[in-house]
Amino acid sequence: MIFDWLIPSLIATLLVLAAIGALRRVNFWRAGQAEKVDMWAGLLAMPKRYLHDLHHVVERDKYMSRTHVATGGGFVLAMVLVILVHLFDIQSRILAWMLLAALGMMFCGALFVFKRRLNPPSRLSKGPWMRLPKSLLTFAITFFVLTLPAAGILPESLSLSNIGLTLVSLVLALLVLLSLGEMLFGMTWGGPMKHAFAGALHLAFHRRPERFGGGRSTGLKPANLGGESHGVAKPEDFKWNQLLGFDACVQCGRCEAMCPAFAAGQPLNPKKLIQDMVVGLAGGTDEKYAGSPYPNVPVGKASGSPQEIITEGLVSADTLWSCTTCRACVEECPMMIEHVDAIVDMRRFLTLEKGDTPNKGAEVLENIIATDNPNGYAPGSRTHWAADQNLAVMKDVKKAEVLFWVSDGAFDMRSQRILRAFVKLLKAANVNVAILGDEERDSGDVARRLGDDATFQSLAKRNLATLAQYKFSTLVTTDPHAFHCLKNEYADFDQAGALKDVEVLHHTTFLNRLIEQGMLQVDRFKGGKVTYHDPCYLGRYNGEYDSPRALLSSLGIEVAEMERSGYRSRCCGGGGGAPITDIPGERRIADMRMEDVAATGAELVAVGCQQCTAMLEGVVEPRPQVRDIAEIMAEHLVEQLVEHTVEGAA
Amino acid sequence: MSQYDALFEPLNINKLTIRNRIVSTAHAEVYATDGGMTTDRYVKYYEEKAKGGCGLCICGGSSVVSIDSPQSWWSSVNLSTDRIIPHFQNLADAVHKHGGKIMIQITHMGRRSRWDGENWPNLMSPSGIREPVHRATCKTIEVEEIWRVIGDFVQAARRAKEGGLDGVELSAVHQHMIDQFWSPRVNKRTDEWGGTFEGRMKFGMEVLKAVREEVGPDFVVGMRITGDEFHPDGLNHEDMKQIAQYYDATGMVDYFGVVGSGCDTHNTLANVIPNMSYPPEPFLHLAAGIKEVVNVPVIHAQNIKDPNQAKRILEAGYVDFVGMTRAHIADPHFIAKIKMDQVDQIRQCVGANYCIDRQYQGLDVLCVQNTATSREYMGLPHIIEKTTGPIRNVVVVGGGPGGLEAARVAAERGHKVTLIEKAPELGGQISLAAKAPQRDQIAGISRWLIMEVERLGVEVRLDTAADADLIQSLNPEVCVLCTGGRPFLEQNPEWGAEEGLVVSTWDILNGSVEPGKNVLIYDTICEFSGMSAADYLASKGSLVELVTDDIKPGVGIGGTTFPTYYRSLYEKEVIMTSDMLLEKVYREDDKLVAVLENEYTGQQEERVVDQVVVENGTRPNEELYYALKANSVNKGQIDNEALFDIKPQPQLLADKLDGMLLWRLGDCVSQRNIHAAMYDALRLCKDL
């Protein structure tokens, strides 16, 4: 071949450019705030995180998973071998053959990428992403041809005229430039392949390493109170590895497809949000964004930079307040990006610094501060619901096997029915239980999701101080939001260890144990078809999908599952303070969820959350009935009766 | 929480926490039929209220502590024997199970009873003065007897406590023995048990002290008192404040229940349980006056029927607990429905006083519109569950109370129901009854039923006269005829109904006939319709004479309702004439002559009037029934054995009906009343 120097030079140049781009990119991330990460452990763990954890998520889409294994795996292998064979010119037929094989694999994968891009679903971003399959194919073909001589398939010098050879070489060089440019230069200079570079590092330096290896990490990180500012105002206020995480986005739009707010036509699209963060961290505008917009918000008007306030030009506050914190996007993201963390971080700025919580937000926060409950009820009326329940109160008994965390449902007449049903079941099973009574305070869930971490932390600390006074081995609650706070978010403030040896359970888990132990007996359910709605804070946040279903099954109910159930359950619209901030959309999320329910033909939807109950019951009738599992259980409880013998009675 | 927070704020009486502010106050149920024991029926009646969320039930109005205070007349609870204790345990368990609390009123009725039965006792009162309402003569109680009765109170309180009840209420109201001693109207004694204020107070005080000593400091002991006897020679409001303060100062009374009015005359008795002619909470000011001077919670009932009314009273702080006794007879799930956000589904008491008027006749207390009340033990449901069997096509003809109830119950069962009504509106005779002065609230019965059938999706066809062809075209599996009746003016051809000489009370009340100037109403029925027509005509300016062949006009109307009619009729100078038969009506010039004949002497009198109105009941509209009967699977017959046993009609037990099942109920069978029609509708349709 003539121009023997050309291909290696191109490779070398592009590698250098890539390295420069990488440094530039790393500098973007370094603009973020310090966050301690065990770099080496992360890097060492990265391959496994990629192959196992990330693949586990990608695997949900079998087509894409196989395609990516072939394409990505083929590319990584091919790239290493290209460097060895074509840059360092290592003469080895084995290497050459291996390279051919890798390229073959990549080619096959790329064909499927190409095929998918022929008629791509709306969730996929277009623009440069439409070019990528062609680049991949070009890369595979070009290097395949280039490697044929090294593999001994083609002679080193072909019987072509010099002109012909020169022409072929130039064409090949051009193709190398184009395809390798996409793969290497694009990788670090903002092309679609950026995802591989940033994604790999994101996996290595992930802010929640607990998520890898089957773990779960869903509790929000505490805000640092008392500093100069609170929350994230500008992109540079994010932790550096959060910025890195944004860059990992592949714009596959799986988040968008799952986002309830997006579906409801509220101005939120998690993918666009992440892309806007990328715009922010690198500086610029969203002109080039080629995916679905925030519903009813035109693309191209947003701009930002690391030092500019995000909500003043890059992302509207309404976008941030539309989120229900349901984690459907996070659960679905193959790159394990943490959208909810980012949103709450930005909400913290709006609430704590600007006092700009929309609609009822400010009022609710004031209520929580003044009365320890979001609706401002007299704190002394917290236990009114239980006036006829004869429940032991911790203040009197000091210890009990089980502490029933009642939650703010105590103030709500509808939720009280759930509480009473649960108490009925506890009594039937002779559980040694006590409540905190008026000493209980709001868990802080709403305050935290609305960005008021100061109020959350204050509530958490005061609740923990109360809990620390009493002895109990199990804490159980019917409220998944309180459950999540107590189980996952209080630990950051529990220096005294009030919950250290305490098992925190959702009532469905607890009830299922009682059923399994034969402590509760229930009749068979006689009604019609039943479906089950997984509450976000029970399912995705805490992984409890089985106990509610086991309970329903104990009633003889065969759950008619909704298409979106389990980890893919659609939010009711009630989380994250969304009903309070109440950002207008085209539809209500709860209505859509009720349509999911109705599609199963169910007459009854079982839930395990008072908030879900409230949201779903807010859907206008006619619609299926809504019951907490505790209510269904209590209705079917087999009770023991005692009759006093009366004179003359048979 | 909700707009009704004020109702749901728990409050302690002594150490007893009452879960909300709603009380079913003491009333005589007439269910303690087994020698005064709280029967299964009694227990289930109160259990239903507790299940429905009522905070506190005070049961057993006028429950007796002594064997010489007869209980059998009103089947009130008998606390004079230990036999009651296990019965109380069942009662207490049933109520406690649902988080309710239950106490019992205990009393010696003194002269307010009848002596001519049971143990044939000499009735006793402080000064032996006769009681007019019960026509009860009595002896002057002797000191030995006083102390014995005090001892009986103590034993009764012990039995209540041992039976697991939450407290006792000493009745010092309704002219029972304690307030017979209190009232200078009845207590003329000059010994230490009368005369001075302290003397008149002594009996009640000794009872209170002895009972408190027996039950200890924590068991609830309350007192029910009047707020004003409304008798010039009786206790007025200031007297009652003094009395309440006097007893409250002992610290031994845990609450006061306050009732407006005395009740030892027919006229005052009507105040005690105000019927629909009264304004809302007419005597609240009296209870509020007592609350001003005592330090313990005050309970007040009397015409409080609506959750918003209760809330308003509680929020304003007039009293601490609102008694909603009849409200719970009409709907024991009153509280539950508020909590379920189903306030519109509460069946509201209309003050027809069918319950209490039956009680004063010694009959079991029943609700005119809720026929499941106190029949819980028979299996009649307040909450009707959907059928698990086939969904049927049900056609109901007639939109009076019977037809509306049949349609409601069938629709609650989940059937496809069509309701056909000839008139342009639903309600049947209730709509007529509501036209009379002070009777408008009776329309609440149909208002609720109409709201329910609408809610339940019943197809209502108004202005539609049903005939056999129409019914067949609808192809019903079950057809319920509730076509009612029509005024029966033809019984005596001499009345001249055919010539138009007489009109019916319906013609008057529905406005189709203009009121005459000088009107004679001839009423053989002596219930509401004749009195209502008289009241209506008089209020339009007619001169009215109400004539009956019975012993007095309105004699068929109960003790709390005829007085309010009498007040209105006497005030409007309606002449009431008894014992006269209407023999003949004829026209003379532009006048009508009504010929009346005294039943006992045969002597005839004539009245020259402008208009003669006859109330002679109704004859059934049964044409459609006979047109459909032959083609029905059951030939129109209802299996009475199954019906009375609250069992499904036998045809419903088969897998499939081989044709149309035909039932008729209400006045289209024979004239009875609202309750009878609705009871049949419920017990027939609940198993559809």
From TrEMBL, chain A:
The source's domain of life comes to: Bacteria
Molecular function GO labels: 4 iron, 4 sulfur cluster binding; metal ion binding; oxidoreductase activity
Annotated Gene3D superfamilies: Alpha-helical ferredoxin
GO (cellular component) term, any one: plasma membrane
| TM regions (residue ranges) | 6-23, 69-88, 94-114, 135-154, 160-185
Sorted alphabetically, the keyword list is:
4Fe-4S, Iron, Iron-sulfur, Membrane, Metal-binding, Oxidoreductase, Transmembrane, Transmembrane helix
SUPFAM superfamilies xref list: alpha-helical ferredoxin
List, alphabetically, the PROSITE patterns matched: 4FE4S_FER_1, 4FE4S_FER_2
4Fe-4S ferredoxin-type domain residues: 240-270, 313-342
Q: Does the keyword S-adenosyl-L-methionine belong to this entry?
A: no
Write down what this protein is called: Fe-S oxidoreductase
Automatic annotation (TrEMBL), chain B:
State any single GO MF term: FMN binding
Pfam families reported for this sequence: FAD_oxidored, Oxidored_FMN
List the SUPFAM superfamilies.
FAD/NAD(P)-binding domain, FMN-linked oxidoreductases
Q: Which UniProt keywords apply?
A: Flavoprotein, Oxidoreductase
Q: Does the keyword Oxidoreductase apply?
A: yes
Q: Where is the NADH:flavin oxidoreductase/NADH oxidase N-terminal domain?
A: 7-341
Q: Give the protein's recorded name.
A: 2,4-dienoyl-CoA reductase-like NADH-dependent reductase (Old Yellow Enzyme family)
Write down the species: Marinomonas aquiplantarum
Give the organism's phylogenetic lineage.
Answer: Bacteria, Pseudomonadati, Pseudomonadota, Gammaproteobacteria, Oceanospirillales
